[in-house]
Amino acid sequence: MNPDDISGVRQLLALTKKIVIIPHRNPDGDAMGSTLGLYHFLKYKGHEPVVITPNEFPDFLAWLPSSEKVRVFEKETEAVTKILKEADLIFTLDFNVLSRTGDQMEAVLKELKSPFIMIDHHQKPGNYAAYTFSDTSYGSTCEMVYHFINALGEDSLIDKTIATCLYTGIVTDSGSFRYPSTTGTTHRVVAEFIDKGIDNTAIHSLLFDNHSHNRILILARALQNMKVLPAYKTSYTSLSQEELNSFGHAKGDTEGIVNYGLGMKDIMFTAFFTENKDEGIIKISFRSKGDFDVNQYAREHFSGGGHINAAGGKSTESLEATIQKFIATLAHTKID
Ligand SMILES: [Mn+2]
């Protein structure tokens, strides 16, 4: 992190009290862990921070320290818009274009006069922030928040609570330390968190061994639906709205299912299509092994983006038409 920017941030923080921290829509472990980790840090520094999520966060993250204090834009738009308008400073974490908050919230954010600080690890950052900490080499925004606090010279404030939040995003965004962006530094940061007393075993259990029976049935259906296209080293699966409804699905139930598609020998690329009738879209998750860049692929074909080995996209066509389009792209996509 650039020292000039850090000193600018330090000056900005000295003048501000009311701070809003925002993750992307459909927040994941990294989005919630980073915003809540930063929330606790700013509280210790005497600020009045509020975490505002665009829509509801999944239940499997509802144990995160102070997650009960999170405000949801979609649930209480008027009250939350007021908080946004009164804020002296806005942090946006784990995303880099305001459209990732959804149309309605984006419109509110665009009108705000207060400065923004972006901390994010996705490609192609927008230019809305007074201070942009964007680095795609980091495996998680949580790890970046750790370095941000460190760069401010405040690492002594990182306690078990902050470390618990930040560990959550490091674990979830690294696929439990398996993705290539996991570095020696990642492990050194985590070692420090363990020394600070986080219960890493309990956190893993809360994140991964805490499913409802319905979620297991949803996973089973997704695995039954899985198709393999050996010629393209590709697999894909899907869940229709009807299937999701039949299992009484809850938010977060489809989290992580995409990864199973890469669990087969010689499969380098996988996609997971979820029908969302409320939003009128097919939500798509992409994963790859090796050099096949799913960020690029998702941008090119499915109005999405993300990272080299993990990205998302969407389609407004039907589930069947979306899958057909996906299959058609494979003929002119180089996957190895
Ligand atoms: Mn992330």
Describe this structure in words.
The protein is globular. With 336 residues, the chain is an alpha/beta fold. The model has no long low-confidence stretch (mean pLDDT 96). The longest helix has 16 residues, at 29-44. It is built from 12 helices and 12 strands. The protein has a 6-stranded parallel sheet, sandwiched between helices. A 6-stranded mixed sheet has the order 7-8-9-10-12-11, sandwiched between helices. Helix 2 runs parallel beside helix 5 (141-151). The protein binds manganese (II) ion (MN). Manganese (II) ion (MN) is lined by residues 30, 94, 121, 140-141, 173.
Sequence stretches where pLDDT stays below 50 over 5 or more residues? none
Structural class, please? alpha/beta
> Mind summarizing the main beta sheet?
6 strands, parallel
- Strand percent estimate: 15-25%
Helix percent reads 25-40%
- Compounds present? manganese (II) ion
| E-strand count | 12
End-to-end separation: 34 Å
Number of helices: 12
In terms of quaternary structure, the protein is single chain
Order of helices and strands: HEHEEHEHEEHHHHHEEHEEHEEH
Shape: globular
Biggest sheet: strand arrangement: 3-2-1-4-5-6
Mean pLDDT across residues:
96
- The gyration radius over C-alpha positions equals 20 Å
